[in-house]
Amino acid sequence: MSELSRAPRNRNEASRVLRPAGDRAFLCTPNPAQVAELAAELRERSLPGVVDLLPAAETVLVTLDSPESAYRLRSEIEQLVAAVNEADSGNVSRGTSPGGDPVQIPVHYDGPDLPEVADALGMRTDEVVAAHTGTVWRCAFVGFAPGFGYLESPDGRLAVARRAISRTRIPAGSVALAGGYSAVYPRESPGGWQLIGRTELVMWVTERDPPALIRAGGLVRFVDAAADR
């Protein structure tokens, strides 16, 4: 990564990239494309006093162990955010996978929305499957439900809109696309994503360590279950 020593030019700029969230946390606002890189930099630095990092779609919440740590680290975190904003976005995948190798998720591509998704993308259904399985997805953040990871791809070629009308019941294990992300529903719930398949893997098990099969920053590769037959 490029040099990380540049401080924000003034306090107005600093307030745009870093805002207090209580007395022991900061909400960092990098350029949206650089959220994963900022989270990776913060993990790599392992700053004393940082106890948790929570990346979201456009922010990273940094939680510290005390107000004293927040005071001590504010300037350094500001500099990291500002420097990441100026850095080349080509490094976004560096250091972002907690487990290293991608999680392999076998999928039965028989979702009810697969034909509609293919039509919207101007592709055949087998081309959608090939694109979905041929991508190494990265979990940008986790939300909506425990274990629900928002997976992003490097090229965004499978970006489709949500359904006009949400379903009241989506089975656990449903594999879906919406808004440029892919995801696996960890439990039965309502939802408006386009369903392209299903997996038998369980995304969230309370007794498992860690409970979530997919974590923020982790890599995922989908595998066509039919190809193994």
What this model shows, in words?
The chain has 229 residues and is an alpha+beta fold. The protein contains 5 helices and 13 strands. Strands 5-13-6-7-10-9-12 form a 7-stranded mixed sheet. Strands 1-2-4-3 form a 4-stranded antiparallel sheet. A two-stranded antiparallel ribbon has the order 8-11. Strand 1 and strand 2 (25-28) form a beta hairpin. Helix 2 packs across helix 3. The longest helix is centred in the middle third of the chain and has 20 residues, at 67-86. The chain is elongated and about 55 Å long. The termini are far apart. 37% of the residues are buried. Residues 1-12 and 89-97 have low confidence and may be disordered.
What would the keywords be for this entry?
229 residues; alpha+beta; 7-stranded mixed β-sheet; 5 helices; 24% helix; elongated; disordered N terminus
